[in-house]
Amino acid sequence: MQRGRHGHWGLLIAVNTAGNSRNRPAGSGWYAAELDEGECKAKAAGLYGCKFDADGNATACGLATIDEKNDDIVIVEATK
């Protein structure tokens, strides 16, 4: 997306609550967004996201896939 242009985005966010069925730490989770090449400096079009811990710190970010079976995100190419 070029500067000054309008766009439409969707962001999928998952946050684990206390007592969740997967026994994940409350407050941890992940988010993901579909990006076109060049948007947010993405090198290629695709799904990008981050996992975060209960304190909100990113633990892994990059190109991602959604693991619907386990209600999770899989980071397939980490970035700095």
What would you report as the Rg, rounded to the nearest angstrom? 14 Å
- For the record, give the distance between the C-alpha atoms at the N and C termini, rounded to a whole number: 21 Å
Q: Extract low-pLDDT stretches.
A: none
How many strands, what sense, and barrel or not for the largest sheet? 5 strands, antiparallel
Our count of domains comes out at: 1
SSE order: EEEEE
Strand portion, in percent?
over 45%
Mean pLDDT: 87
Shape type: elongated
Q: Biggest sheet, strands in spatial order?
A: 1-2-3-4-5
How many H/I helical runs?
Answer: 0
The share of residues in helices is under 10%
Label the structural class: mainly beta
Total strands: the figure is: 5
Explained architecture:
The chain is mainly β. The chain has one domain. It is 0% helix and 45% strand. The protein has strands at 11-15, 29-35, 46-52, 58-67, 72-78. It is elongated, with a radius of gyration of 14 Å. The two termini are 21 Å apart.
Layout of strands and helices, then pairs:
Blueprint: E1 11-15, E2 29-35, E3 46-52, E4 58-67, E5 72-78
Antiparallel strand pairs: 1-2, 2-3, 3-4, 4-5
